[in-house]
Amino acid sequence: MGKVIRVTIWNEFRHEKSQDRTGEIVRSIYPEGMHKTIGAELAAPDLEIRYATLDEPEHGLPDEVLNSTDVLIWWGHMAHGEVRDELVDKIQRRILSGMGLIVLHSGHFSKIFRRMMGTSCSLLWREVGEKERIWTVEPAHPIARGVPATFTLPNVEMYGERFDIPQDGRIIFLSWYEGGNVFRSGVAFERGHGRIFYFSPGHETYPIFKDENVIRIIGNAVRWAAPEDWYEISCPNSPAPEEIRTPDPNRK
């Protein structure tokens, strides 16, 4: 076995604790939280998995955790605005230095994803439990390894175009919904020395994180985004011209 990848799964962990009907549904599907289900499904010898949630001190990501994370998986929905900007600054710097970021479903509107994209990341949505068919459009990409050409999820929240993300993203998966909408549902980016993957399936009231293809894609994305090395983000001094000029062999 090669290098072990240190993965931190961050979940807002609010829906699971809410006392409304939605909370009851989410708890029936993910009794220990979506983060714990994702971690259990991803479990493998090459992954060291730990968890962090919004209401923990420092949102579960103190420096000692963030600075020892190779890949951060992010799920958020109802409390994006509660994530402190100082933490977003730290995560951004960590990504630019090499850390991978996997953003799931409604995390498209998180502070960190919008920061890294530089756009609104807005999209169309509709929640009526319709079918989604996902198409693999870049089968040779590492994130698509072992994923069929197409697969379906029976009940999802629809995310539709236009998705306001930068045009430099590499589209790995496209989705079609039975209501007629289409969506760039799996898109990969590079920012600084870090890699980012956005994947849209994962609404809280459906057991999407128990689907084998969804988990395979997330696992592939983690391994693709894991850094080969780390780089300090700084502006180093350039050598003075006389230090890099070719010496004159005739000069005494």
Q: What is the topology?
A:
Elements lengths: L4 E7 L9 H9 L4 H9 L4 E7 L9 H4 L4 E5 L9 H13 L2 E5 L6 H7 L6 E13 L13 E11 L9 E8 L4 E10 L2 E6 L12 H14 L15 H4 L8
Parallel strand pairs: 1-2, 1-3, 3-4, 4-9
Antiparallel strand pairs: 5-6, 5-7, 7-8, 8-9
Helix pairs in contact: 4-5
Word description of this protein:
The chain is of the alpha/beta class and 252 residues long. It is 24% helix and 29% strand. The protein is built from seven helices and nine strands. It has helices spanning 21-29, 34-42, 63-66, 85-97, 111-117, 212-225, 241-244; strands at residues 5-11, 47-53, 71-75, 100-104, 124-136, 150-160, 170-177, 182-191, 194-199. A nine-stranded mixed sheet has the order 2-1-3-4-9-8-7-5-6. β8 and β9 (194-199) form a beta hairpin. The radius of gyration is 20 Å and the shape is globular. The mean pLDDT is 94.
Assess the beta-strand content as a share of residues.
Answer: 25-35%
Low-confidence stretches: none
Q: What is the typical, i.e. mean, pLDDT? A: 94
The arrangement of helices and strands along the chain is EHHEHEHEHEEEEEHH
Largest beta sheet: what is the strand line-up?
2-1-3-4-9-8-7-5-6
> What is the terminal-to-terminal distance?
58 Å
Work out the helicity level. Answer: 10-25%
From the alpha carbons, calculate the radius of gyration and give it in angstroms: 20 Å
